[in-house]
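Anyone? Bumping this.
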Amino acid sequence: MAEGQPRSVMHRLRRALLGAPIPTSKAHHERLSPLLGLPVFSSDALSSVAYATEAILMVLILSSQAALKEQIAISVAIVALIIIITISYQETIQAYPSGGGSYIVASENLGPKAGIVAGAALLIDYILTVSVSVAAGVDSILSAVPSIKLHIPDATVTISLFFILLVAYANLRGLKESGSVFAVPTYGFILSMFVVIGVGVWKTMHTPAGVPHVETGGLVGKEATVGMLFITLRAFAAGCTALTGIEAVSNGVPAFKAPEQKNAQKTLIWMSSILAVLFIGMGYIALGLPTHYNDFRLVDSASPRYLTLIAQIAAFGFGKSTSFGMFQVTLWFTAAILILAANTAFADFPRLASLLARDGYLPRYLSRQGDRLVFHNGIMVLAVLACALIVVFQGKLDALLPLYAIGVFAAFTLSQTGMVVHWLRERHRGWQKSAITNGIGAFLCGVVLLIIGYTKFAEGAWLVMVLIPLFCALFWSIKKRYGSMTRQLEIAGQPKFVAEGHLSLLLVPRVHRGILNGLDYAQQLRGECQAVHVTINEKTLPELQRMWDEFGREVPLVVLPSQYRSLISPVLDYVDRIREDRPNLMITVIVSEAVSTKWYQRLLTENVALQLKNSLARRKGVVVANVRYFLN
Amino acid sequence: MAEGQPRSVMHRLRRALLGAPIPTSKAHHERLSPLLGLPVFSSDALSSVAYATEAILMVLILSSQAALKEQIAISVAIVALIIIITISYQETIQAYPSGGGSYIVASENLGPKAGIVAGAALLIDYILTVSVSVAAGVDSILSAVPSIKLHIPDATVTISLFFILLVAYANLRGLKESGSVFAVPTYGFILSMFVVIGVGVWKTMHTPAGVPHVETGGLVGKEATVGMLFITLRAFAAGCTALTGIEAVSNGVPAFKAPEQKNAQKTLIWMSSILAVLFIGMGYIALGLPTHYNDFRLVDSASPRYLTLIAQIAAFGFGKSTSFGMFQVTLWFTAAILILAANTAFADFPRLASLLARDGYLPRYLSRQGDRLVFHNGIMVLAVLACALIVVFQGKLDALLPLYAIGVFAAFTLSQTGMVVHWLRERHRGWQKSAITNGIGAFLCGVVLLIIGYTKFAEGAWLVMVLIPLFCALFWSIKKRYGSMTRQLEIAGQPKFVAEGHLSLLLVPRVHRGILNGLDYAQQLRGECQAVHVTINEKTLPELQRMWDEFGREVPLVVLPSQYRSLISPVLDYVDRIREDRPNLMITVIVSEAVSTKWYQRLLTENVALQLKNSLARRKGVVVANVRYFLN
């Protein structure tokens, strides 16, 4: 780039904010070992323990304290689900060494329609990942330092928006998914959670249990059983948010060191194991907490503040303290890994959007990498949508969570089904085992999807169930429009255009140096040339005519009266009249403009060229050429 | 105008709001008799009694009740001033049958510098006329129906802004200054004021006077005398707002029926007489009001509402009533004539701004009449500034009034001084009488100007005293800039530009029908032609090359690599490189664009032409030609 050339203020501002452009040749990814791969790909999955267990307990505790007993069964079911999906995705990693995202797997094996459903579901889920993770992260911070609420109005929303914009900005600058940078918060979170859960488990075993008397909540007999089943399923559905992000490793196989697939599989197993342990551990302690700790997310008796479940568990083990200690460390690491999870979505959403755009389902500019080598359009779209969700739902996790997970499980189901088709087609040695594994995965994910859709429908899942088909319809119509554009732009089969010559119209408001510049230009064009003057004040006409006779180099001058004092309309009308007579004539309207270099000096002149260009925009075969004469 | 042509949404919205365009041939003014001339030109002057007497009393009553005695003397002084200025302006009408505004009289006789001082002073005053009149009108409405305040938040500001925008809108549509329409509120106001004042005077004569015991307010001896003098002068200065608008008739002489000057002079005498009678009458009753009516603009004891002086006088004669009656009629007529006064400024400000623009002191587009035959730019500027004043001063008349009148008297002084010079030059028969009359006028206006500037300085007059020179400096620098532009655009004396030929660069992102359209166009241009392709993805290059070989009609293809994936920078760099070698070459960059007709379809494509045009904006001798290919 010729940096010596004058650049606009906007351009310089852009450079200052985003940094110098990065050449395409610098595009590379560090190759990750499982140790560094874990931080890069697991923040989304691991961070979900910050809200999943709590979400289960919220459902159970609100229906009846008795229901809390079901919590163990639900936790076991979810861990089983984690194991099955993990095994299932081992197969995907094996089959798609170049990355097997749900959109690709579904498109390739089930056809484009299934592909765009998976794509729509995932895009919605990535938006929710940002909103949910950031809101949960802010909850964690507010649990750590509740006094923040006194100083910042509407603290949850304000801080959430701040973090979304911060992460978006970092990604616009081209933040790399760096294993070593991500390692600190991820391993810090894992370690502090192990300590907190370990101490919690030990303490629970030496404390009287907090489960109160059994209350059936008014339901008896068969009704009670049906009611209980629904509540249990709803709690299970709530807990399924723990599985969001588990597919991340399978998307990123090429990022691993050789042997890529082996390392990816190893990382996935490690991640799932840690997730299962954290999840089971938290569930165990939550039930064993003394009664006064049991009112999750209700006002803490000691001070008017909400505490997240992780905060309560940490407080149970180490006490609450606003000074440095295990309580603070745990909550800040929790916040950090949640913000990292949002950051993951800022890599995934634009990448998926670019795939969809490349295939013609979204506007093509979403597939263009900006000068910082990032999909800047996708990043900005995601930031706007995630911020909108935070504002609409006032940053309330309880309101956002029911929307979450449904997109994930729709994508899981399609992806696993696609894998079954893949194995049926390929039929390599031992294909039966792979097909059965993925078949079980697909079936279970489908069942979970139905459970989530059914039990959370009224709470908000309906919105996602409406949005996915709407997105698909949008994708489909964009694809159709691009197809129509391509056909219309095809060279073969179109009637040959025969230009019936060319006419230049040089606008002459007055006769000055800039106009002569325009005349110079007009003489570089072939065909006829006319000078056109729009007259508002008849009195100035003779002088203009005289000047033109002297300097107009024999070009004929057409005078157009302007009944309504507009400089634009008479030109439009004149052009229209000419085209009526000679429809295939090409017309160039030359606007000579004297341009000042300083913006405040430009306030003294009207931009007639721009107005004229906009007015002529819909007329075929008319080109506006803006010849500038520079003043100092 | 060819209405059959497609028009933009903006255009249609404009037509719906403002109505069809009005041809220049329809520009005419009705010729006014004195009877209809009075309503058109007197609203500004007459309506000022709504705040002038009150302003005097506010100053006096706030210093000491004793000072109230001075009110009679001040009223007499102001009536004397009205008479002298009226006589003085009779001379102006005689000398300038085509309209003798202060800007014209001062420019012609005292030179352009005095002219722009008068222009600046008047522009500022017209802005204040709008703000002050509308705020006083709203005060009158709120005195009539105080309960409005309970229903509209921030009632004074909200309703004031509403009226300013309403009047601005009416003027944008091209409201005519129609004598018969304006007659109703003006004569209604005069009549109701005569009734109210008549009844008030009769009642005052039969009621014990409300002037309380003499209190000197802490000042004794010489100090008391000096303090009293200052207070009296300040009250006098406050009362001078009654004279604003008195010059209106002299500006509008050509609007009268023949004999124009005679009729204008007759109208001016009538207006001044009515003004003097209303002013003296209100002053007399105000002093005679019972004590409990004497706390002007303070909370009325009966209900928590502010009453304007006119409201108190009307209530004194006819009692307060929210149902139809003399009290309501008077206040609503007062509000109406005040809004009319604001309307007058909406005619005067754009007209003066257009004169200044025509002379090169303001951007020229302020002198352009829009398609409704009005100076739309001036109207919008005035509306914005008047609204800003209302918001900044929270619609408070007490805060706005000290800024008012200083501009008027500055303009009066310059105009009358200009008249003296005029007579000294002309020396027609009996010139001595005219010169002496205007000399006295000029001297008195100058003295009043000093009094206003001195006594109201701290209250806000300083702001106007700072703004007038700032405006003048702005006018002067605009004039200078236009002068410099004209010199630079002069044809004689400039070196003859020698174009070293012409080069067309046709951008070829892909090869399609639209590009061939661009190629058609390129072949209408003389000189060399090159096709330019910016390559981001090397893989698509061979196919493009092959297509160009087939359809490119032998035009050579230049391939530019894009290190930073920008489509713009490589073109800029290429253009810069060519121009380095051949600085006087003319270059046309042809951008072929496939354009969809529906706006939502256009969302699918980037506007590269616009980006390129903005980027090339500062490069000399480069023209961007945007060839459009229309899709359906």
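Late reply, but here is one note on the structure posted above: The two ends of chain A are 26 Å apart (CA to CA).
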